Amino acid sequence: MHRDDTANPRATRPNVYDVAQLAGVSIATVSRVRRGNGPVADATRERVQAAMTELDWQPSAPARALAGERHEAVGIVFPELSGRYYAEVIRGFEARAVEASAAALILAAHERPDSEAMVRDLAARVDGLIIMDRTIGDDTAAIVERRGVPVVLLARPPVDDIPAVRVENVEVTRELTAHLLTHGWRRLVFLGDPDRSPDVAQRWRGFQQAHADEGLDVPRAPLLANGYQLTDGSAAALGALDGADPPDGIVCANDELASGVYEAAELLDLAVGAELAVTGWDDQPLAERLAPPLSTVHQPMSELGARAAACLIDRIEGRHVVSETLATRVQVRHSCGC
Amino acid sequence: MHRDDTANPRATRPNVYDVAQLAGVSIATVSRVRRGNGPVADATRERVQAAMTELDWQPSAPARALAGERHEAVGIVFPELSGRYYAEVIRGFEARAVEASAAALILAAHERPDSEAMVRDLAARVDGLIIMDRTIGDDTAAIVERRGVPVVLLARPPVDDIPAVRVENVEVTRELTAHLLTHGWRRLVFLGDPDRSPDVAQRWRGFQQAHADEGLDVPRAPLLANGYQLTDGSAAALGALDGADPPDGIVCANDELASGVYEAAELLDLAVGAELAVTGWDDQPLAERLAPPLSTVHQPMSELGARAAACLIDRIEGRHVVSETLATRVQVRHSCGC
DNA sequence: GCGTATGGTGTATGCGCTTACATCTTCCGC
DNA sequence: GCGGAAGATGTAAGCGCATACACCATACGC
Predict the structure, then answer these.
(1) Distance in angstroms between the alpha carbons of the first and the last residue of chain B
(2) Quick check: B123 and A58 in contact, CB under 8 A?
(3) I want to staple A264 with a disulfide (CB 3.0 to 4.6 A). Which of A152, A234, B152, B211 is the partner?
(4) Which nucleotides of C are covered by protein (CB under 7 A)?
């Protein structure tokens, strides 16, 4: 025996040896019963199961991972957990992970300077990793992948052999912008920072293309906000609307920014929908509740996380997967004047 | 050597032996360099570090956990990840966990039938566990604790030796309700299910006590909703407002339900604030944006998660901790008629 | 009746790391 | 000049599990 059996067995967590001893079998049999593989006589199985219950034994996850080379865990790296979008993505991710009986690890890369190291540490404790948005560089993703941990990119472009799950951004923003332009709004600005998110970069491109399509001057620079929260939107909008040559329409990179624009418009006594067009992105429940109801783009947020998780699990299990683009659609309400 | 060195070393992840061999030292020295403990000559340290970098070595988390008996990971179990409240709590939790350089595991217990087993499985791969709200029973929490995994309860009452982190619910709801009553609203109902959440149960109690304080009939039953989303609120409110003896004020268990009540009021052509008082709970950013701005109770959502994580880490490191109750405050806006 | 599948079980090794302990140098004090 | 402390490094024994392989029955073939 590997341990002093005269000591109080309750002083520490039970292990296979304890169960085996109590059931009067070897650890191999205990393992076979637990895993449900290999042949075991019915009577033996019952004895072992009784022992497991009696000792309240739960196998050590690290030990299993070490012996079996599988962590039964997946991780997701995202920039931050503020705003509904990320919460929904993580919700979808977690649900799919649990369905595959894998533990779900999360890491908010934030603007943390050591995020690359943290990601690599995370990679050492999962079977696969989802890397989302503007968090860490493609090179780190490649390193993780090279180390044998499959990666799926989320809301960013695929690289080399690493597949990505994204939503359609360009065409739908083009359509949305065209909608505004054909309804007579002419001095549109785009609110969001293309440099800080691949998604936003694509939306900005769609916004520009719509102008080109109509033969209009193509906007050269977006209106930048400090972040993607309501207050960021109101601050940026206030500056633009109160300045020289104010816009008559603001295409926002998400719904929270749009809410901020509403706030700014209210302060400046501008009627949204009549004097100022505003559009969002995400189609959160709140979009419908704003006054006037917000025209926006619907994207399947939780499904995005779920699909990425599904792809990741496929990769872990050795199946070949390809990049996916999930559909989005313009959701017209009244903030565009309709 | 434990492995066939003629094989391509890149075919598998490098381990301590590879690093040790490359640096010309023993694995003990490699470990010492990595952990930064024990005495190591400067020259040796540099050689080892160079080897680690060259091989791009990341120690196996399971192996470390198995040898060191520490997972360097903490987990949180919550009922669901819909709604801002849970997202914020998890945000605070994750931030604090990472600060303590622990990985963050999440598990949505949902209404999953096997959630108890899932929690026990989760408990086998963390150093400590936060159990939130109505997820799993106290008995399972006790089992986890008895197995040597410290538990901190979140938004539910402490039991035995398991500390809890909560917000103040009773007094503040009493104050909020009294505010409504003294402003002339008389036929108040409480919207939420006390049986499904300890927090809501306390809020319901505060609601009742306010009536008793004023010498009024104490409401005997709350208005139940199917969940805590906007649509749940509107459905429930629609039924109540459209029935016999409609209420003139609705005290909601969270802001999303209150938004739903707004929707119902709109459908029935009732002016919130004038003909119908509505209050929420959470004080989400959206509360301020509703028309009229929502009177609600402010609670420190992300701090709740952060404090729980801090307590958990204290417990893991052997420090004694006591239960905490975080302060809340009534945030009067206009939906109560003020 | 003996050889041989086959089901049931045990033994022993390895997963990659930490660490107590052993070993071997230096270098200092007297 | 010698004993011994202190520094530097190596050796080996686990941590708890999975599993290849060995082993022992029994049952069946002919």
Answers:
(1) 79
(2) yes
(3) A234
(4) 7-12, 14-20
The strand pairing partners of A151, in sequence order, are A129
- Which nucleotide has its C1' atom closest to residue B66's CA? D15
Q: What's this model's pTM, rounded to 2 decimal places?
A: 0.91
Amino acid at B314: D
Helix, strand, or coil (residue B3): coil
Mutation to test the B interface, candidates A66, A127, A335, most B Cβ within 10 Å: A66
- B160-191: pLDDT as tens digits: 889 999 999 999 999 999 999 999 999 999 99
pLDDT, tens digit (0-9, with 9 covering 90-100), for A236-290: 999 999 888 999 999 999 999 999 999 999 999 999 999 999 999 999 988 988 8
Across all strands, nucleotide nearest A62 (CA–C1'): D16
The answer to whether A104 contacts B105, with C-beta atoms less than 8 Å apart, is yes
